[in-house]
Amino acid sequence: MRATVIHGPHDIRIEEVPDAAIRRPTDAVVRVLNACICGSDLWAYRGVAARTAGQRIGHEFLGVVEETGAEVRGVRAGDLVVAPFVWSDGTCEYCVQGLQTSCPHGGFWGEAGSDGGQGEAVRVPFADGTLVKLPKEAASDEKLLPGLLALSDVMSTGHHAAVGAGVRPGATVAVVGDGAVGLCGVLAARRLGARRIIALGRHAARTDIARGFGATDVVAERGEAAVEAVRELTGGQGAHCVLEAVGTEESMRTAISITRDGGAVGYVGVPHGGSAGVDIGQMFGRNVSLNGGVAPARAYIPQLLPDVLSGAIDPAPVFDRTVDLDGVPQGYRAMHDRSALKVRIAL
Question: What pTM did the predictor assign?
Answer without folding.
Answer: 0.96
